[in-house]
TrEMBL record, chain A:
Topology in the lipid bilayer: Multi-pass membrane protein
Principal location class: membrane
UniProt cross-references to PROSITE patterns, sorted A to Z: ABC_TM2
The protein's name: ABC-2 type transport system permease protein
Pfam families (alphabetical): ABC2_membrane_3
InterPro entries listed in its UniProt record: ABC-2_transporter_component (IPR051449), ABC2_TM (IPR013525), ABC2_TM_bact-type (IPR047817)
Spans through the membrane: 21-40, 153-176, 197-221, 233-254, 266-290, 319-341
Statement: the UniProt record of this protein carries the keyword Transport: yes
PANTHER family named among the record's database cross-references: MEMBRANE COMPONENT OF ABC TRANSPORTER YHHJ-RELATED, TRANSPORT PERMEASE PROTEIN
Gene Ontology MF annotations: ABC-type transporter activity
Annotated organism of origin: Paenibacillus phyllosphaerae
Record keywords, A-Z: Cell membrane, Membrane, Transmembrane, Transmembrane helix, Transport
GO CC terms, sorted: plasma membrane
Highest taxon of the lineage: Bacteria
UniProtKB/TrEMBL annotation, chain B:
Name by which UniProt lists this protein: ABC-2 type transport system ATP-binding protein
SUPFAM superfamilies: P-loop containing nucleoside triphosphate hydrolases
Lineage, broadest ranks: Bacteria, Bacillati, Bacillota, Bacilli, Bacillales
Keywords: ATP-binding, Nucleotide-binding
One of the record's GO molecular function terms: ATP binding
Domain ABC transporter: 5-233
Cited InterPro entries: AAA+_ATPase, ABC_transporter-like_ATP-bd, ABC_transporter-like_CS, P-loop_NTPase
Position of the signal peptide: none
Length: 347, 240
């Protein structure tokens, strides 16, 4: 136990000295995530909304909600594209209808939300029968459907992926350096047990993985405002498990690399394929053997659970199987690691 | 005299390549024993069997009367590999502290041993520096201090003076002689430098995984009727 603690303390000291690596671990995921967020979310220009036959009070309310409102006599699809409108609100026969161009699903969704909220507020204030309520509004889309929102689906996968990738890289290279400089061999010439070495590494790098996970998850949810339908604790749990799997896998694969260069070569072999099966491409459309392949990839289970919790609002019961499989992956990798250390000392 | 290390009929191969063949080696308590031979002779493999990192295919290795490998016995063996094996991001002190905490030492003992070993290798004033800023000689000395940290009865040093300047080599040898004289340590050293071999109490000449001959430097020179160890080596090697 004291030996494991000594190992943890040493890894902490080493990591704190290596500012670049710390920055990679903590800042790089936030940087890439932010970049992706803006790539998918487009600009923050006020949406251009065309209106026709809409009461003046509603128009005023819409303008107060930061929308560029332009009045037309009549609106059709051709006008929507020609005038580069994001949407059009029309009142025909007492029925409100909203047509969304949906060029950018995220922007369209935001516009729809804003219009609905404004209408609801306006109807609540007036409380009269003639004021059309937001609930009666029908929505149509020029392109796509109401369900198209790429970043909402993608972001849970991205969060899980970044945690997995950076923990894998740093723990793998960290241990590889120890193998290359001979310090691991020296470590094994002391009375430390192989299990103590593995526990020490898992906990030592684990502390940093936990901090990274917490930073990434909170940044994604509070700063980037990524949809979180379920519990944040479940998100943290799944990400921590992903980090544990990445940690033990990184340490294990470093056994088969003889240089940092060779460690980086594992990325296209081990990391990239996992991304393909994490849910970015529709799973049901894959060939049968591809679906089988997906099930040996830890990220498949992590992404499934994260998407469930963050996007669909799943509870713990719904992700229990994913959690269990991730735990199983970690257990297998840890056991293999303890065995792989026999290369350095048979006992 | 008491035997610290006893190797009996040990063979070891990696794949089809025989690295050690029926090695016999006895090291007495309190002596400096040299293993001399060219690179690739099997010295490092033999050393790894002694510290229990590898297991012999045939034969037995006993250290301090116990059969290796034995985890608890590692408390009594100080091992210094060919590579310096230090954590460059950490200071000298942090390196010593880390390795000290891997052994059964109380906090007070740890402090005392760190102070003693640092003083012994003349690094006491450099402990606050990061190892990355150390010179090659300082790293070797720190590495030696780490091998001594738990006050082991036996010291096993794999080419401790390779690649360092003559002055430092002399000072390391003086330290080894002092450890033998004052603390009664048993020291096993591998080397391929002949003038170092002369400082050993006893020698074993290794080539191609076999021990060609062994004895004190003086005995060897008398036996083979030559005036230098180098000639002994050439004579024995050539006779095969």
């Amino acid at each position: 136990m004291t030996r494991t603690l000594a190992l943890i303390r040493r890894i902490r000291q080493q990591m704190l000295r290596d500012r670049r690596t710390l920055a990679l671990l903590f800042v790089a995921p936030l940087f890439v995530l932010t970049l992706m967020y803006y790539l998918f979310n487009g600009n923050d220009d006020p949406s251009r909304l065309g209106v026709s036959q809409v009461p003046a009070t509603v128009v005023q309310a819409l303008e107060e909600a930061d929308l560029t409102v332009i009045a037309y006599d009549h609106i059709d699809e051709e006008l929507l594209t020609r005038e580069k409108l994001d949407g059009a609100l029309q009142l025909t026969d007492g029925q409100l209808s909203l047509a969304l161009t949906n060029n950018d699903p995220t922007k369209a969704k935001a516009l729809q939300m804003k219009v609905a909220q404004t209408l609801a507020a306006a109807s609540q204030g007036a409380q009269s029968a003639e004021q059309p309520g937001g609930r009666n509004m029908t929505t149509t889309y020029l392109y796509g459907t109401a369900d198209t929102n790429f970043f909402d689906v993608l972001s849970p996968i991205l969060v899980g992926f970044f945690v997995f990738f950076f923990v894998f890289l740093i723990s793998g290279i960290g241990l590889l350096r120890e193998r290359m400089t001979g310090t691991l061999e020296r470590l094994m010439s002391t009375p430390i047990r192989r299990s103590e070495v593995i526990t020490g590494y898992l906990a030592g790098y684990g502390i940093f993985a936990v901090i990274q996970t917490i930073i990434v998850v909170f940044y994604a949810i509070t700063v980037l405002d990524i949809t979180l339908a379920g519990s944040i604790w479940n998100v943290l749990l799944v990400n921590l498990l992903l980090a544990l799997v990445a940690l033990s896998l990184g340490i294990l694969l470093s056994t088969f690399a003889s240089s940092e260069f060779q460690m980086v070569q594992f990325i296209p072999i081990v990391i990239i394929p996992q991304v393909f099966f994490a849910g970015i491409f529709p799973f049901d459309a894959m060939a049968g053997w591809m679906q089988v392949l997906a099930r040996i990839m830890p990220l498949y289970y992590g992404a499934d659970a994260l998407k469930g919790v963050m996007y669909k609002g799943w509870g713990f019961g719904d992700i229990a199987v994913d959690v269990l499989v991730l735990l199983l992956f970690a257990a297998v990798f840890i056991a293999l690691n303890t065995f792989a250390l026999r290369k350095y000392r048979k006992l | 005299m008491e035997r610290s290390i006893s190797v009996d009929q040990v063979s070891k191969s990696f794949g089809k390549k025989k690295v050690l063949e029926r090695i016999d080696l006895q090291v007495q308590r309190g002596e400096i024993h040299g293993l001399i031979g060219p690179s690739g002779a099997g010295k490092t493999t033999l050393v790894k069997l002694l510290v229990g990192m590898d297991i012999a295919d045939k034969g037995t290795v006993h250290v301090l009367g116990k059969r290796m490998p034995d985890l608890d016995l590692l408390q009594s063996i100080g091992y210094m590999a060919q590579a310096d094996a230090l954590y460059a991001e950490l200071t000298g002190l942090e390196n010593l502290q880390f390795f000290a905490s891997l052994f059964k030492l109380s906090k007070a003992q740890q402090k005392e041993r760190i102070a003693y070993t640092a003083d012994l290798v003349k690094l006491a004033n450099e402990l606050g520096k990061k190892v990355a800023a150390y010179s090659g000689g300082m790293r070797r000395r720190l590495s030696l201090a780490i091998a001594l940290i738990q006050d082991p009865q036996i010291l096993i040093l794999d080419e401790p003076t390779v690649g360092i300047d003559p002055e430092l080599r002399l000072s390391i040898w003086n330290e080894l002689l002092r450890l033998k004289r004052e603390a009664g340590k048993t020291i096993l050293v591998t080397t391929h430098v002949m003038d170092e071999a002369e400082r050993c109490d006893r020698l074993a000449m290794v080539r191609d995984g076999r021990i060609l001959t062994s004895g004190s430097p003086r005995e060897l020179m008398t036996d083979y009727q030559v005036s230098g160890l180098e000639e002994v080596f050439l004579k024995v090697g050539g006779a095969r």
